[in-house]
Design goal:
It is a single chain. This protein is an alpha/beta fold. The chain has one domain (about 10-165): 3-Layer(aba) Sandwich (Rossmann fold). It is about 25% helix and about 25% strand. The protein has 5 helices and 7 strands. The protein has helices spanning about 20-30, 50-60, 95-100, 105-110, 155-160, and strands at about 10-15, 40-45, 75-80, 85-90, 115, 130-135, 145-150. It has a 7-stranded mixed sheet, covered by helices on one side. Strand 6 (about 130-135) and strand 7 (about 145-150) form a beta hairpin. Helix 1 packs across helix 2 (about 50-60). The mean pLDDT is about 95. Bound molecules: adenosine-5'-triphosphate and magnesium ion. Magnesium ion binds near residues 51 and 117. Keywords: ATP-binding, Cytoplasm, Magnesium, Metal-binding, Nucleotide-binding, tRNA processing.
Length: about 170
């Protein structure tokens, strides 16, 4: 018998505009309000592919009302909401895994909800519960996102992706 919980699920989405990319993030953040399990959203993609705008949407959907800025220089932003705390990292400027240890990365990402921009730089530093989201800019300006995880069911991913899901 196939155990759905340990299967890696894959979802493809396409967002035509920056507003759509934020809205897709919003839909994920809204879902996470009632998820009540740890999850590290590992964002991958070249410069300017929309990782920060997507993260802003996630934060809004999760109930963050404060301004959400890119943590490129701060390395980490912390957002406290009624639904819990969300940690937002950007590890672009870090070169060495020891620098991550210095900022206590694992303490902030284990058993919590986190967003990590440029997560593919340090894949071994991530917790077990990961949702990989890889963004790619298309020639027409839209963004393709590929979602991979064992932490969500296919039905949950389809619910989150909603109108942006690309079906085969
Ligand atoms: N479909 C789209 N989705 C997301 N962003 C888009 C889209 N079309 C154009 N953009 C533009 O692309 C840029 C994305 O910027 P953003 O800071 O979110 O990217 P990033 O991946 O976080 O970059 P960096 O790696 O430099 O932090 C913005 O200027 C946004 O207006
Ligand atoms: Mg960014």
């Amino acid at each position: 018998m196939i155990d759905n919980n340990t299967m890696t699920q894959c979802l493809h989405c396409c967002t035509a505009t920056v507003t759509d990319t934020e809205q897709l993030g919003y839909q994920l953040g809204k879902f996470l309000k009632t998820f009540s399990k740890p999850l590290c959203m590992a964002l991958v993609g070249d410069l300017g592919t929309g990782k920060t705008h997507f993260s802003q949407g996630v934060a809004r959907g999760f109930g963050v009302t404060d301004e959400v800025t890119s943590p490129t220089f701060a390395l980490m932003n912390t957002y406290d909401t009624e639904a819990g705390t969300l940690y937002h990292f950007d590890v672009y400027r870090l070169d060495d895994v020891y620098e991550l240890e210095n900022i206590g990365f694992s303490e902030f990402t284990e058993d919590t909800l986190s967003l990590v921009e440029w997560a593919d730089k340090f894949p071994d530093a991530l917790p077990l519960e990961v949702l990989w989201i890889t963004l790619t800019a298309q020639a027409d300006g839209s963004r393709l996102s590929v979602w991979q995880t064992s932490e969500l069911t296919e039905a949950e991913l389809l619910q989150i992706g909603g109108q942006y899901v690309l079906r085969d």
